[in-house]
Design goal:
globular, 38% strand, alpha+beta, two-stranded antiparallel ribbon
Length: 74
């Protein structure tokens, strides 16, 4: 019985450890002060620690955007 429990714990922890990543995704919706969505807005993700631009994207016609696979940074 102890072996079964130990095996389950090991499997769970290995799945959690595997899920760790040094990449991130930012998703959002651009809206103006009145609450209306802003299509084709430019969104810039930058690393303020290195003063570099990581990626620039534009929002879609619904104001939504996604910047995927960003490196860890500030």
């Amino acid at each position: 019985m102890k072996r079964v429990i130990f095996s389950c714990v090991v499997l769970i922890w290995s799945a959690v450890a595997f899920a760790q990543s040094d990449r991130a995704t930012i998703r959002g919706t651009v809206i103006d002060p009145t609450g209306a969505v802003v299509p084709k807005a430019e969104i810039v993700a930058s690393d303020i620690a290195t003063n570099t631009i990581a990626r620039t994207v534009r929002s879609d016609e619904n104001g939504n955007y996604e910047i995927a696979d960003l490196k860890r940074g500030t």
